[in-house]
Inverse folding.
């Protein structure tokens, strides 16, 4: 951790403090509780120490953070998830890039993604998602569909809690602007449908215009079974 500068710590502290205040009443209660639970190893006062976080997860859902230099290929990505290893960068954005980055940094990866990995059902969904991807590494069509599922759930997922749409996706929770867009309902909110999601292209260069609302986290896990069924039925139809 000695390689980080005072500016890095300032950026981490600023982003963390700003967003932890901003997500009150906007983020899923499950995410907020997970973030509170992780506070000894994930907080505003220190840049994350992956060794400490991994030791913490040993008593929880057994996930481990795996350092990657940047974007990795699809095969390695799915294999890591299948092994309960979540890839994360270790670089911190600059002061003049607080609100937008083309490539995810450590704040996105750790603040956005990691807390919910301590939730048993969500954790198992991500694990099974990785295992499913490993089965179809030679099928470009299915990989695109899995990429869309990842995008509209793990990255930009929303959930209905107590009659209100709350955020759980990392792309939302690590973004001040996108968190507020959800809270202000400035987008289209659709019923969660695995069939619609796998056929829905997305853009990475704008705030999202469409979100898919789950009722609970078990719906994500169950949708993987639905996806396998869709693929099986399609394969059977193609052979008849």
């Amino acid at each position: 951790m000695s390689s980080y500068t005072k500016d890095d710590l300032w950026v981490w502290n600023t982003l963390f403090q700003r967003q932890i205040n901003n997500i009150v009443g906007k983020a899923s209660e499950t995410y907020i509780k997970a973030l509170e639970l992780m506070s000894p190893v994930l907080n505003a006062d220190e840049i994350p120490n992956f060794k400490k976080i991994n030791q913490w997860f040993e008593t929880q859902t057994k996930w481990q953070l795996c350092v990657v230099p940047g974007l990795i290929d699809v095969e390695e990505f799915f294999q890591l998830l299948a092994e309960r290893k979540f890839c994360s960068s270790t670089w911190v954005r600059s002061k003049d890039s607080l609100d937008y980055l083309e490539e995810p940094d450590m704040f996105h990866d750790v603040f956005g993604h990691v807390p919910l990995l301590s939730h048993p059902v969500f954790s198992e969904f991500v694990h099974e998602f990785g295992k499913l991807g490993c089965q179809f590494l030679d099928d470009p069509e299915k990989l695109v569909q899995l990429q869309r599922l990842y995008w509209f759930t793990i990255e930009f997922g929303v959930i209905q809690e107590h009659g209100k749409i709350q955020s759980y996706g990392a792309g939302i929770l690590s973004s001040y602007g996108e968190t507020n867009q959800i809270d202000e309902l400035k987008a289209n909110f659709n019923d969660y449908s695995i069939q619609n999601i796998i056929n829905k292209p997305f853009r990475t260069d704008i705030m999202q215009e469409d979100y898919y609302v789950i009722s609970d986290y078990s719906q994500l896990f169950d949708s993987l079974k639905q996806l396998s069924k869709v693929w099986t039925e399609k394969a059977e139809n193609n052979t008849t």
